[in-house]
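Appendix B. Chain record.
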Amino acid sequence: MAKVNTPRWGWALTGSGHFFKECLGLIRALDHVDLFVTRAATEVLRMYRQDLDLPRSTRVFRDTAASSPPVGNFYYGVYHTLVVAPATSNTVAKCVFGISDTLATNVFAQAGKCRVPAIVFACDTAPELETEAPDGMVKVYPRRIDLDNTERLKSFEHTTVAETLAELEAALAARKRELGPGASGP
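Structure tokens predicted for this chain:
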């Protein structure tokens, strides 16, 4: 496969509802996105009654194969950035410990192996959080292990960890500036 002329954003959705709708809004604001939808994210789409309704330039890959064939695109320069948002504590833990058994964790591993910068919007970032469940706001209390794994992920090369929606938006804006004029998205 030849290198692509316009590298794309890779964006992995996991099974978290934490700012899920807002993350979909951020995806819709970008051009040239490949969306990696895990099986858990498919369930969250249904629970939160969301449809993808994405720009025409978006390609959607679903977690339907054990080997996650789309990850091969990382080897050929198809992606300039990977975003994993929102990222469950399960996804963060698997990323930290090198387990790549879902589409999201597999693309994260391949991005790292190919030195593609990653932005991870971790959900469990404070001892107490409010988050939106399908029927409204709820309080959650992340475990110490969840908080520790978020901290560990911050030490990974080429990885930016966002702890808030504002930090995710800032990380996306910073990456667009790094990419320069013509970067996909407003």
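Further analysis of this model is presented in Appendix C.
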